[in-house]
Amino acid sequence: MDEIRVSRRAALMGAGAVMAWVASPARALLQAVGEVPVPANVERLIGQMTLEEKAGQLSLMPSAWGGGAALSLNPASAGPNFQQQVEEARRGQLTGVFNGNGATMAKILQTAAVRESRLKIPLIFAADVIHGHRTIFPVPLAEVASFEPDLARRTAEAAAFEAAGAGIDWTFSPMVDIARDQRWGRGVEGGGEDVLLGKIFAAARVHGFQGTDLKSTERVLSCIKHFAAYGGAESGLDYNVVDVSERTLREIYLQPYKAGVDAGALSVMASFNELSGVPATGNHWLQTEVLRGEWGFKGFVVSDYTGDEEMIAGGFAKDGRDAARIAFLAGVDMSMTSGLYRKYLPELVRGGAVPQAQLDQSVRRVLALKAMLGLFDDPFRRIDVKRESARSMLPKTRALARESGRKSIVLLKNDGDLLPLPRSGKRIAIIGPFASGLHDLVGPWVVYGDDAKSVDLATGVRNAIADKNSLLIAQGSNVEEPLAGGIEAAVTAARQADVVLLAIGESQGMSGEAQSRTEIVVPAPQQALAEAVAATGKPIVVILKHGRALAIEGAVANAQAILATWFLGTETGNSIADVLFGAYSPSGRLPASFPLRSGQQPYYYAHKPTGRPNPGKTLEPYKAHFRGIPNAALYPFGHGLTYGKIDYAGLALSAQAFPRNGEISVSATITNRGKYAAEEVVQLYTHQRTASITRPVRELKAFRKITLAPGQSETVRFTLRAADLAFVGRDNKWTTEPGAFDVWIAPSAESDGVHGQFELTA
Ligand code: BGC
After folding, report:
1. Which of 177, 194, 304, 333 is catalytic?
2. 77 Cβ below 6 A of ligand 1
3. Residue 355 to residue 345: CA distance in whole angstroms
4. Deepest of 77, 220, 354, 658, by most Cβ within 10 A of its Cβ?
5. Average pLDDT, whole number, for the chain?
6. How far apart are CA 27 and CA 269, in angstroms?
7. Residue 401 lies in a domain
8. pLDDT greater than 60 at residue 293
9. Residue 626 within a domain
10. Mutate which of 60, 74, 101, 310 to test ligand 1's pocket (most atoms within 8 Å of Cβ)?
């Protein structure tokens, strides 16, 4: 029997292996990291620096060397060439660069800074290491589907190992923005729609990147982004206005950032969006009062790309000088890309618009972090050209990519137990734009990874089947355009096959930054392909590729089996084949709900009730539903099947009521009645029936991933305390209120599982 205590602290840190962190000495060390010691040499330097050199320490620039996809991941900047950038390093005009390429570049720049600049202050090298450096892991959203925070810790650790080996000190990761509107393309970089999962994965990733010693040449400084509520963009349009109540901000959006800060993250990136009328980059309440005042954050805040300058177009700053002043006074210590700080901060200080002491404080924070990273002891500690290749794409890292890939896959449907497939005896056709070819494997937001070094679906399947030559492959369609003759060839292949693997969905350019969609569907030419293939009557396994939850319809939704496979990275094909042929029984669960239709967005399971709820799925007049469909998910948050047959029974409560200073335990017995071993993600949800602030219809409070052999049962017990039932009250402070609660232990957010009720008393 397993017991989980879900105190607020535990909820923050999560179940399973991450729980171990809470108690471990390593965790204690991490808390110490939250205090940034300021070495004597830093104070000495501040005493010697000119205003221009101080502003330089607060100016981060895109690397002029560039590399990988770096240059195409952001709007072009009219920056200097590399030689001019080396000169800027010599003159102390730079704190560091980001998204450059490798130890060779870093060595040239660092040499200029520490040998030829007046004060010899080392540079810091940053990069977007979002889901792997050279070895690419599943996109962050996919990895959350594993419901295994320790997996995220391990992949972040492995990414840090490769990145630190390539001269990188600092990653702009994890992105922890809660995303409840699937039209928004950047949900792919985050932790999904749920607060608890968002918190747990934020903390796990920070631990993975930073470890317990920032001086380690295997670790990097992490950056929580984008602060705050970037994922709340109106209509899911990237960069758009966010207008949420302070209560929703505190109870939902701020939670994962806070968890990341509590886990020891020592840098935070301000978001592009405005928040209820005030841009985050110019928001003193957010960047200073909440972040530093309430949360005790001791690191530094960096703007996002040209976020300070963008306040001009956003109607909040008159010009560049004004933008620099507003951002800096709000609490943004460092400016990325715009160059506004180095251009205007010296004169703003001289003119008295910016206090000298505040400038010194920001410089102190940045230099203290450079010291913590060990850069004053040895500026070249992460810069070693030989080490870079010696650490790149090692077999153990690729094995981790394969493991994280298969654990990220969600089996949405498996009618007639079509899966797993036998390794021989069946002719397989792989059809669709993602059937084969070294493209769309690594996924969005990859600077250094390479599709060409990845495993495509056809190769993965071929590796797994007995008769390597029996595979039929047909592209059928382009991603967003028809392919001449494609459907005919695909139908011919389907007719010759016993089973079709239909590899369709989004390309990697269709999600990520600036990739909002109005219709979150399989693009029309691929839908037409699916309809034509389905008309052959052959059994179909849909293998979806996607950076968001999709609204699937027609032949896609009606296929016998559907796998949500996201973008799985370097080992894509092998990970999918592991699941297809039963080497691994799928264990992923949706971190974002698949709605019935696009028009439901934003749709998320933890929505509020209305005064006219529509009971069940049958539509009743004058109730809250759309014309023709209920406001429910096709596949809700938490859903995912296994190759076992899992049933839930015997909900038991330790009491009918418990006081605020007490606790209650809730248990259920989970049984695998199937013939395959399975991993089940057992989920605990609650709902407070009446309160002074209306409560969501369900909220995830805890989960546990268990393994069950065929025929095995396990009783899973959770312990709830009053703090687990807290919410942000009318005064915008956390509170609990006595009252009646529903409780479910269930396999998803919208399944019945087993249900009970209890009272929280005064
Ligand atoms: C993104 C950030 C990223 C930065 C640097 C911005 O456009 O919003 O997430 O870290 O660019 O590449």
Report:
1. 304
2. no
3. 10
4. 220
5. 94
6. 24
7. no
8. yes
9. no
10. 74
**Which residues lie closer than 8 Å to 519 by C-beta, 6 or more apart?**
551, 598
> Across residues 429-454, what is the average pLDDT?
97
Q: C-alpha distances in angstroms, 164 versus 62, 475, 551, 695?
A: 18, 39, 39, 44
Relative to beta strand 625-626, strand 472-474 is: unpaired
For residue 67, what pLDDT is reported?
Answer: 61
Same domain, 286 and 414: no
305 lines ligand 1 (CB under 6 A): yes
Distance 327 CA to ligand 1 centre (A): 17
- CA pair distance 219, 240, nearest whole angstrom: 34
Q: What is the CATH number of the domain that holds 221?
A: 3.20.20.300
Q: Is the CB of 304 under 6 A from ligand 1?
A: yes
Residue 309 CB-half CA count within 13 A: 13
What is the Cα–Cα distance from 676 to 710, expressed in whole angstroms? Answer: 6
Residue 631 lies in a domain: no
Residue with tokens 């956003």: 314
Same domain for 56 and 177?
Answer: yes
Specify whether the backbone of 153 is left (phi greater than 0), alpha (psi in -120 to 50) or beta.
Answer: alpha
Q: What is the mean pLDDT of residues 580-594?
A: 98
Ligand 1 atom nearest 272 alpha carbon: 8
Write the CATH number for 569.
3.40.50.1700
463 and 372 in a common domain: no
- In a 13 Å sphere around the CA of 672, the CA atoms on its Cβ side amount to 22
600, 624, 658 — which closes off a domain? Answer: 600
User: Based on the domain organization, do 582 and 684 belong to the same domain?
Assistant: no
Q: Is the pLDDT of residue 14 over 60?
A: no
What CATH number does residue 670 fall under? Answer: 2.60.40.10
Q: Is residue 107's pLDDT more than 90?
A: yes
Q: How far is the CA of 50 from the centre of ligand 1 (A)?
A: 30
Distance from residue 68's CA to the centre of ligand 1 (Å)? 15
To the query of whether residue 304 is one of the catalytic residues in this protein, the response is yes
Domain boundary among 584, 600, 616: 600
Which atom of ligand 1 is found nearest the CA of 230? 8
| Residues 186/229, Cβ–Cβ less than 8 Å | no
- 680 CA distance to ligand 1 middle (Å): 36
CB 748 within 8 A of CB 636: yes
pLDDT digits (tens, 9 = 90+) for 409-424: 999 999 999 999 999 9
User: Which residue's C-alpha comes closest to atom 6 of ligand 1?
Assistant: 305
Q: How many domains does the chain have?
A: 3
Same domain, yes or no: 167 and 73: yes
Judge if 267 and 365 occupy the same domain. Answer: yes
Residues 312 and 172 in one domain: yes
**Do 119 and 182 share a structural domain?**
yes
Asked if the model's pLDDT at residue 33 lies above 70, the reply is no
Share of the chain above pLDDT 90, in %: 92
Residue 638 lies in a domain: no
Q: 78: domain range?
A: 30-389
737 lines ligand 1 (CB under 6 A): no
Task: Give the pLDDT confidence of 311-359 residue by residue, as tens digits.
Answer: 999 999 999 999 999 999 999 999 999 999 999 999 999 999 999 999 9
Whether cis (ω within 30° of 0) applies to the bond prior to 433 is: no
